[in-house]
UniProtKB/TrEMBL annotation:
NCBIfam families: tatC. This is Sec-independent protein translocase protein TatC. GO terms for cellular component: TAT protein transport complex. One of its GO terms (biological process) is protein transport by the Tat complex. Belongs to the TatC family. GO terms for molecular function: proton motive force dependent protein transmembrane transporter activity.
């Protein structure tokens, strides 16, 4: 949606369809520029980043005495891996920009309170997403070690670079998106779709699902690896439920105030001057 210079003349940010499409094109262009710049940074730090990605596989050889290596199947496989890693890193680096552009496209069509709420969502979503990705990065070595323990005795792990990269990206995105779920719950509550009391009643199911996800995403040799992942997720979930409960109470008080004002106004007789004007 277009940025309106004169907010007083057009408080709701209304515009023609072509203006909407033009503004969308501008927002997408800015987001694409940010991703391209982030990708350039990805190219610059690719070598140390690749060394960090391959380190869990090297540790299998050095610390656990296994035969494991990252295998490049084709002639251009190494170049493809560099492109994919750099673009993925560029998307993560540019996440504050493209999330903001999405917010800025929606903001002019919202009221003042809704715009402030949308900005709060962006401010919370970016660090949570990045925090989830960083946590997944810490879990990655343990996940590689545990999953390769199922290799039969005498076997070797020659892992395809494409398969390994897909596994890493899915792991990072799974954690990043999981950390965004509490923000989504708060947004649904603000929209009146989900009640905080209903979320609180289903806390047992929430705890079970979080622990199940932690067990699958970070399978460790003991329960501590699951514990380290499940605890921050549970804290975020219950913090979101607390925000929903506070917002529900605020909504009830606001509705009660509006109802009281409506009843008080209904008891007041219409002045004779207003009746004459009618």
């Amino acid at each position: 949606m277009v940025q309106v210079n004169n907010r007083k003349a057009n408080p709701e940010g209304r515009m023609a369809l072509l203006d909407h499409l033009k503004e969308l094109k501008n927002r997408l262009f800015k987001a694409a520029i940010a991703v391209i710049l982030g990708t350039i940074v990805g190219f610059i730090v690719y070598q140390p980043l690749l060394a960090a990605l391959v380190k869990p596989i090297k540790d299998l050889n050095e610390q656990h005495g296994r035969q494991a290596a990252l295998n490049f199947d084709g002639v251009a496989s190494s170049f493809d891996l560099m492109i994919q890693v750099s673009v993925f890193l560029g998307v993560i680096i540019a996440s504050p920009v493209w999330i903001y552009q999405l917010w800025a496209f929606i903001v002019p069509g919202l009221h003042k309170n809704e715009r402030r709420l949308a900005l709060s969502f962006v401010a919370a979503a970016v660090p949570l997403f990045i925090g989830g990705v960083l946590l997944a990065w810490l879990v990655l070595p343990n996940a590689v070690r545990v999953l390769t323990e199922f290799t039969p005795q005498g076997g070797s792990n020659f892992i395809s670079a494409d398969v390994y990269l897909a596994f890493v990206i899915r792991l990072l995105l799974a954690f990043g998106v999981a950390f965004l779920i509490p923000v989504i719950l708060v947004g649904l509550n603000m929209a009146g779709i989900v009640k905080g009391a209903r979320l609180l009643k289903s806390w047992r199911i929430t705890v079970f699902l979080v622990c199940l996800f932690a067990a699958m995403a970070a399978p460790g040799a003991d329960a501590m690896s699951m514990f380290y992942l499940a605890v921050p997720m549970l804290v975020l979930f219950f913090a979101a439920i607390g925000v929903c409960l506070v917002n529900d109470k605020r909504r009830v008080r606001r509705q009660a105030k509006v109802s009281a004002e409506t009843e008080a106004t209904a008891d007041v007789a219409t002045p004779a001057s207003d009746l004459e004007n009618l």
